[in-house]
Design goal:
This protein has 215 residues and is of the alpha+beta class. β1 (4-8), α1 and β2 form a beta-alpha-beta unit. It has a four-stranded mixed sheet with strand order 2-1-3-4, covered by helices on one side. The chain folds into two domains: 4-82 and 199-204, Glutaredoxin, CATH 3.40.30; 88-194, Glutathione S-transferase Yfyf (Class Pi), Chain A, domain 2. The protein starts with a strand and ends in an 11-residue tail after the last helix. The longest helix has 31 residues, at 88-118. 53% of the residues lie in helices and 8% in strands. Keywords: Transferase.
Length: 215
Amino acid sequence: MPLYRLHYFPESGNSYKLALMLTLCGETFEPVWTDFGGGVTRTAEWRKVVNEMGEIPVLEVDGVKMTQTAPLLLRLAEQYGRFGAETADEKFELLRWLFWDNHKLTGYMATYRFMRAFTEKNDPQVLKHFRRRLEDFLGILDGHLQHNAFAIGSKPTVADISMMAYLHYPSDEHGFDFATSHPAIHAWLGRMAAFPGWKPAYELLPGKRMTNYAK
């Protein structure tokens, strides 16, 4: 069996995507806490030794460092035969939602949540802009989930794991009450959390936490 080491920090939804995928596939990993808040990923040494792209997460597979969450999720889905697609049409739909999430939902939510909760001083106008964009994207997802149990049908895929990661964190971090504002998203998050083996991020990703200034 492969030996996994996951370089992460607990607030990283992208790290959570890989941690959850491995867990749901029955695998364990060695957690490698990274001082993202302290700026270690921006140092030349870390980028030389760990990830030249300067990003978290990094997944080591039998000592080989691998990066970029979306292709890693697809690789794990193929490797374990779980949370993937079966038909050509399903594969297209999975990629469609996965890429949309990376570009729109995760892309904006990760930045907005970090600025809102984990930055001591932020620009209210910038936050307002990001929230307005997020409300658009969340409305798109909520509308889709009003007619679909999961991203591409009746079963969860890596597209669901990717899209739900940042949305499941506490509301005092991202500032949304999905039960009120987006009930279809709220119900979908509940379906994901009911999946056997599911665990929240702060349980899968231990270690020192950053200060939450939004509390």
